[in-house]
């Protein structure tokens, strides 16, 4: 099995929050960040947001830097969140002009993805949702989402569109807030090149068992892309992989092998106070350690134990391998 | 609009929990419970579980008691939870014999519903889920669910099948845990007579905005039945309607009018320590008070305010009517 | 009863988050923000953070602006969060130099408070906590907290020190995370001029019933200051007062009267996308509407109903006044 | 260090819930349950509830059975929850007659504990709390709690009184809902023989980091007794130890060694659908596996890493031992 690891390059940037807007450290140019990424053992890909990390202006430069650092663009994230104009929504905004602009941005992001060889874009709709009761018309918002995504996925069939769900933040409620809703949405869009991104932290935050979410999406042919990180369930803390949900991660990596997921294993961490290179390196080491464990346990053996249905026996078998 | 109120008759029973299994008060025969229900102003319907409140043995008796008390059966709940044989699942159990039995039980429930004039059954799959990681094969479980529900909904088209989602309890994780998952499931079953039940407490527990869940289901023609109660979000407390989520209830009742929901407004409360008649009476009074408020506010006026998109102005308008 | 309303002046600033660091609107100088605050009917006080809104450099200017706008400084918040040096803690930092600096900052904040006539400082320890298991020595941190606060409260007895608890953000875990922990801490410090600030949103986020937290603190003579806002329990959303927890707010305002709280009613809202003047105005109108309701209900009548212990009857009595 | 393992004997009983009140299996007499407990490798103690597992009537018989099975009574739980008379509270009930009865029951429990050689009772106040806003007078309840516990702890100084906190269930809100509140309470009672029980699941449910709660209590000399189990944070699922919070358990066992906790390691699991002997056996194996790991890691080495404050490096060190 040939696992390809990737990381979002925002991890190497300044990492601010609402109390420290200028960041917990100084920000860095994308070229420097790519260099840092390239120093991480096992990492061969990077995620770049458009237009944030990569823009129309620095596209050539980014392409160069990728080559120079022997990194592939794993996916291009379309930034529908980080500018004021999107604050009441993008693909589902009530304002048709904003929706139009948001669709066009995604289409340009597809072109950028194709140019950089990523061949897939990530669409996370951070601002499409609501903060208060009585703020939006849910039915109209749903229709606008479907229509906008049809225009995007229909724009070019050689670039995949990966819709990433998240229950909240920056809005108190996002429209596309769990795996089933995301699947429903992409099914309604009805095109082959649209599917779903699971971000492990978002899935935990949605109250999901991540392996179950993966199984549902893979069973419907829509498991397109994966973000790894960890949190304490109530918020998207974007922590070191496995630092909290180790048992869930073991189950998840077993299922990733089982369903034959062959996409990127991409890190989406946000190390406010930690060294990003260290966090990425340790996240990859943890994932590799778990993959080795799953191999030692054996997928057929785990299948057999699950088929027997004695959960305690199965957990005991696993425990004997990690706490001998 | 002519609102029809109903209540689950288990509210009038002993109401035990795991620490007080014999109940917070003595249990009562169904005939007595129906008499109590009939004493509640505005209540014209009752929910009965089969085979628990209504059984093959007491069917005639229940039919008589309904007539005597001038009550309609609003829906028949099929009890796939309260017997030991279902403890590892019913419609999605790994054991094909259990699945068969569970399907047949639901079909018999449909016959009972037809006989009692309810013409709809409620299927809440309390035991279909898992407690631990590595306990079940999520993909098989999904297939079994779809197959079982096809056999049920296909059994007779004159009885509606309402699937009620709930994120947890009695399992730590239920398969059908939110509105979108339930909608995905019934769409996959693909028959006209299968739809979804929203239980307000389950929806809150799933982290949903209830009005949004309603809007999604109604927009897809699958909003079949409704359970009212309240809780503190982290558990299915089955409290007095509006005792916690008053603002959400106002939004919900506005949306129920807006989408033209014409089904039952059914109470699913579990008053361990309170008088169930008092809780149902006050729940109905609260719902009617909110409906009156929504009428005073005016649906076109609320539509207009929402279209303007100024959430604070909309909430201010509502506040002036409840806190003058 | 003479209620004094106040608001944190950060509400009138740019309001950024980690995805939109430059803010959802342009930031404003403190003088402009004070002018906005002064335009809000019923508002007579403002909270200022030191050294952020008020600094050593602009102290005279702020004093002037307060006078010119007929505003009082209700409390001075000491900013132990918004600079990089505090990122691993302030009063409980492992580095003794940082702790010293943090103590001195608070003492200077007390001088500023005295100078501006506020006579109380607010200490919210946003960075004192941890993100990961195995990150800190909890016992040392507790001792450092107690020692640091002794030095602060002991610095001058004419300025009150109000410790504000919050369960998380910006750390995934804060040390002083609920009302009982805050009370334990200030009792251990053991000086008369140290007490607790309840921020309603932090209390909800801590899983508390806010009225109960207030009753506990007031019963121990440590209920010093109050922040009003609202949220959806899982995060500190800093929303419009009463937009979510209306029932809890009614109970809270009843208890505030009952225990004779005579401090400020201060707004701590963070209106990313809304007009801050509108949010503060509507928050005050909501609080006044609830106070009027509590007066109409009558505190002796509510006392009597609570003494009877029939929760449904009490809630029914209240409901009849808001949903007639 | 010589670890003593214990288990609550209710684990071996029928285990019902509100949907299956007669239990997921048949109940068993206490003598049979003790025999099952005795079959578990490494288990030397049992917890018994009075008057439930042990009563005035079967006291001699239980004493015999303990001897016959070579089991010690680790602690006697006083049952203030499982009878209807406690439904609105016990030690903090508004009815003084109920409070009196509750105090006497605890005192008799102390005599039973002394007689059986346990020398400590556990007080978990399941019914002392509230379900609704406006249901109770929080200040009176607190005073009644303190007074009742004074009478109990003062009754005989040779038996320890361990107060177990839990945020909810069976009430939607319990008064003694977290570690700090419990510590505040026992400090206010002010007697040497009263302290706190941490139940890991209750602590997780309270949003606590369990190791931090332990450190706080141990630092104040009040860490008396420990219940082990696991859950998904939002409810007291009473699952197999370490099946969810493995990382937290490693940190907890490190801290238990660090503070020199020398009490019982007692299992409080509730295996509805699993074999209780298997769950207890595997729980103990997991705890022993973690203890071995902590020894391999070395407490001085962990102390040193924590003092350095590089969380990622510390977690990496641990990860290398469990996922080599």
TrEMBL record, chains A, B, C, D:
Major location (coarse): cytoplasm
Keyword terms: Carbohydrate metabolism, Cytoplasm, Isomerase, Metal-binding, Xylose metabolism
EC number: 5.3.1.5
Catalytic activities: alpha-D-xylose = alpha-D-xylulofuranose
Record carries keyword Cytoplasm: yes
A GO MF label: xylose isomerase activity
Compartment(s) where it occurs, according to its Swiss-Prot or TrEMBL record: Cytoplasm
One Pfam family matching this protein: AP_endonuc_2
UniProt record, GO biological process: D-xylose metabolic process
First-tier enzyme category under EC: isomerase
Complex and partners: Homotetramer.
Protein name (database record): Xylose isomerase
